[in-house]
Design brief:
By secondary structure, this protein is of the alpha/beta class. Helices cover 43% and strands 16% of the residues. It is built from 15 helices and 13 strands. Strand 5, helix 5 and strand 6 form a beta-alpha-beta unit. One of its GO terms (molecular function) is glycosyltransferase activity.
Length: 387
């Protein structure tokens, strides 16, 4: 959908707030920021200063020219604690100077900052709109535990300071309704999308390994399941196989020890985080063994690049690959994952039969569609239809 002509609508001042500048949330915000800046809107980012490495610093350098309202980084802890008061006060002082029309919070901490600060700004006369996208976040908590009950109750309470909820997939919306309750503010589902340039196929290198894991090195994303499944796939195939694990994270040493203990040290290479398309060229199949997801960008990126994906049936992944896709393994089940990895490796035409139809996939999961849908919502909340 073409951008609205600027002659008919004022540029909006949009601030995205989130905690951790890694993974899917960071990708989502970068895509929205770039698309909306290209339309003439003024965009800024506020996020944590203690998370990320060299790869993320390169991504900040790429997005910074699109940020007319700047980049604010300050310490924001993952867990709730006394330091939140300082983060809240510092964030408020930064954001009030920027006079935003839209405050869009992503993830639990970003949502709390956005809605608290936005409410104070409104008390002081601002008409700022307060949006919240969970991106999983609090929804990963178990409502049967004391901590989970507290976190989910806080989510319900914050609805009073929310002008709209934005879910990135139907799974996330259903989970919110089941754990928090039916949304009281207006709520929309707007799928994540990837850029047109990412729909150019990636051809595997001549020395490409069999399987690739790419993502955060932490148990929730399932690197341990990937290592276990590779060993099981070797036994099914009756021969050694090769793999790569690409990414950074707090449990990297655990997985290094695990692959060595399983006798897979020489057959599973490890490399730090890198651009996804560069990583895709290193393998024949991409494996996404997560224990929990919302709407995983890595699946979108891989399918767009023409790389076949094998993934756990979690979060919004079935909405990408198809509810009945033969590429979906049972969650947290290395044997189920290994069975699919073996079939993908040995059955002629497995990828062509299994992956989504390219044109339909692009129509649903492009960043152009995502950004246009989000801007329509922003305009509506700002009381500006662009007419």
């Amino acid at each position: 959908m073409p951008a609205e002509p600027l002659s008919h609508a004022r540029p909006l001042r949009i601030i995205h707030c989130f905690r951790s500048p890694v993974g899917g949330i960071f990708r989502h915000v970068r895509d929205l920021a770039a698309a909306h800046a290209a339309e003439g809107h003024h965009v800024g980012i506020l996020c944590d200063s203690s998370t990320g490495g060299a790869h993320e610093e390169r991504l900040f350098e790429e997005i910074q020219p699109h940020l007319a309202l700047g980049l604010v980084r300050l310490p924001i802890r993952r867990s709730i604690g006394p330091s939140d008061a300082r983060a809240l006060w510092t964030s408020y002082k930064e954001l009030r100077q920027l006079r935003p029309d839209i405050l869009h919070g992503h993830g639990a901490k970003g949502g709390a900052l956005t809605r608290t600060i936005g409410t104070v700004l409104r008390i002081n006369g601002s008409r700022v709109a307060r949006l919240y996208s969970p991106h999983g976040g609090s929804l990963h908590y178990d409502g049967r535990t004391l901590r989970g009950k507290g976190i989910l109750a806080l989510e319900r309470f914050q609805e009073h300071a929310t002008d709209a909820l934005v879910f990135v997939c139907d799974f996330e919306r259903r989970t919110y309704e089941a754990k928090v309750g039916h949304p009281r503010p207006p709520a929309e589902t707007i799928y994540n999308g990837v850029e047109d340039a990412e729909f150019v196929p990636v051809v595997p290198d001549p020395d490409a390994v069999n399987f690739l894991y790419i993502g955060m090195l932490r148990d929730m994303k399932g690197p341990d399941i990937f290592i276990d499944a590779l060993g099981r796939t070797e036994r099914l195939a009756g021969r050694p196989l090769s793999a790569m694990m690409i990414g950074d994270g707090p449990q990297q040493d655990d997985y290094l020890r695990m692959k060595l203990h399983r006798g897979l040290g020489q057959r599973i290479g490890m490399a730090p985080a890198m651009p996804a398309r560069e990583a895709f060229a290193r393998a024949r199949f991409v494996v996404v063994p997560s224990r929990a997801e919302s709407m995983p960008y890595i699946v979108l990126e891989a399918v767009a690049a023409g790389r076949p994906v094998i993934a756990a049936r979690v979060g919004g992944t079935p909405e990408i690959l198809g509810a009945d896709s033969a590429a979906l393994a049972e969650p947290n089940d290395a044997q189920s994952l290994a069975g699919i990895m073996h079939r993908a490796l040995t059955e002629e035409g497995w990828a062509e039969r299994t992956m989504p139809e390219p044109e339909a996939f692009k129509a649903t999961f492009s960043s152009t569609t995502m950004a246009a849908s989000m801007m329509r919502l922003y305009r509506r909340l700002a009381g500006d239809t662009g007419a």
